[in-house]
User: What shape does this take?
Amino acid sequence: MTTHINERTVTFRRAFTLGSLNEEFPAGHYTVQTLVEAQHGLTHRTYKSLTTTLVVGPGLGQPGQTRMIVIDPQDLQSAFSRDSRSAAAA
Assistant: This one.
């Protein structure tokens, strides 16, 4: 099996939380990395997501380290939905 990382940038317009994490993340741009595994069938190739990670850097002008937090993709989707609703209501 072959694995690779899909990487994308996401933007939150408001502060957000993810699932059971006891942390509020500020609005801004974040990198989301998904480790996927290619599975070769007889007629086609499919991909299975193994882990999804949110890359969180230090705040602007603040010293600190970049963190890699393993998250549930459904929690990320829920946070997007909340962000979209709150932006539409404003």
Notes: The chain is about 20% helix and 45% strand. The mean pLDDT is 88. Strands lie at 2-12, 28-40, 45-56, 67-71. The first strand starts at residue 2 and ends at 12.
